[in-house]
Amino acid sequence: MNVVELPAPPPSRLEPVPLRLAGVTSTGFAIMFLFFGVAGGWAALAPLDSAAVAPGVIKVAGDRKLIQHLEGGIIA
């Protein structure tokens, strides 16, 4: 007759696994600094050959017209 031994049961209390976020955090910060560094360098050094030009008029904001509803009441 063969005897099969079962593995030991797991402990009744689970111990918390220590979190090691130093590597993940430093990698995340490195990626952020690299992204913003490249984007900032490009923004500072990229030549601007042209821009969008459109006609416009500057008008004072105090030039208001009063209107009245045909049937009376408040216009919101």
Characterize the structure shown.
The structure is a single chain. By secondary structure, the chain is mostly helical. The chain is 32% helix and 0% strand. The chain has one helix at residues 22-45.
Would you summarize the structure shown here?
This protein has 76 residues and is mostly helical.
Strands, helices and their partners?
Layout: H1 22-45
Please trace the helix and strand order, writing H or E for each element. H
Could you name the ranges where pLDDT drops below 50 across 5 or more consecutive residues? none
β-sheet strand percentage:
under 5%
Count of alpha/pi helices: 1
- From the N-terminal CA to the C-terminal CA, the straight-line distance is 93 Å
Instruction: Work out the helicity level.
Output: 25-40%
The total beta strand count reads: 0
Oligomer: single chain
Structural class by helix and strand composition: mainly alpha
Shape: elongated
Mean pLDDT: 83
- State Rg: 35 Å
List key phrases describing it.
1 helix, 76 residues, mainly alpha
